[in-house]
Specification:
246 residues, alpha/beta, Rossmann fold, 9 helices, zinc, PIG-L family deacetylase, hydrolase activity, acting on carbon-nitrogen (but not peptide) bonds, in linear amides, LmbE-like_dom_sf
Length: 246
């Protein structure tokens, strides 16, 4: 499966004419499965990156009560984010496991965009089947689609006008990125930042322990994926993204 990821058209260099990004994900740990190494590349270059977690991941550990699990996973996310240079993580408070696409979700993501005013918004999970196989989580798909739509919402002064009345004016994002789809067009080099990308996922210690026998070898997985995509990026380990025109 990994070998197949390196087959296809070459990835282009991602445009570098931006200074800030907002990464939106359904759960703590989602961004750490690859994207965090790209985030470290960006923060090393002086770019400001903020995270928005739609849920706190409170339903993610079967043996742990959600009331205990949610705060623990929030802290693990804060710890992992800090390792790649991210010091702001917003938790939007939607219920883990039952996130629904719709206006409430679009509204909350649009609010985050209008608050942080990023040049770039990154999300993932639009497809039922991700490039590495299996079936993606429904929360991922709901958040990915809502995020793409919220980018358009955030730029329209006649959408979610209550936010504008609160002092959050419209904001137009320059680039929208979708993490690792079969349609990926660009890539971020991560040869110098993979160590921190691995460490950011390892920071989710309790969550990974909760996976039991299904827990992956984190370092082997992340390094293997970055190497697998390398043939399409001049042999450089990378994180691929799809750049959308919106």
């Amino acid at each position: 499966m990994l070998a197949a990821l390196g087959q296809g058209p070459a990835y282009a260099e991602l445009p570098d004419d931006w200074t800030s990004a907002l990464c939106v994900a359904a759960h703590p740990d989602d961004l750490e499965y690859g994207v965090a190494a790209a985030v470290a590349t960006w923060t090393d270059a002086g770019k400001r990156v903020t995270y928005a977690m739609v849920s706190s991941g409170e339903a993610g550990i079967g043996s742990m009560d959600p009331a205990v699990c949610g705060p623990l996973r929030e802290q693990e996310e804060l710890d992992g984010a800090a390792l790649v240079g991210v010091d702001t993580v917003d938790f939007l408070g939607h219920a883990d496991g039952v996130i629904e696409y719709g206006l409430p979700l679009r509204r909350d993501i649009a609010r985050a965009i209008r608050t942080h005013r990023p040049d770039v918004v990154l999300t993932a999970g639009l497809d039922v089947r991700p490039p590495w196989g299996g079936v993606d989580h429904p929360d991922h798909r709901a958040v990915g689609l809502a995020c793409v739509d919220a980018v358009r919402d955030a730029a329209n002064r006649w959408v979610f006008t209550d936010q504008i009345a609160e002092g959050l004016p419209p904001w137009k994002v320059r680039y929208v990125l979708i993490g690792a789809t079969e349609r990926s067009t660009h890539a971020v080099p991560v040869g110098d930042t993979l160590d921190r990308g691995v460490a950011s996922l390892q920071a989710h210690r309790k969550y990974l322990e909760g996976l039991g026998p299904a827990v992956p070898d984190v370092e082997q997985m992340l390094r293997g994926m970055a190497r697998a995509f390398a043939p399409r990026f001049g042999g450089r380990p990378c994180v691929p993204v799809e750049l959308l025109e919106i």
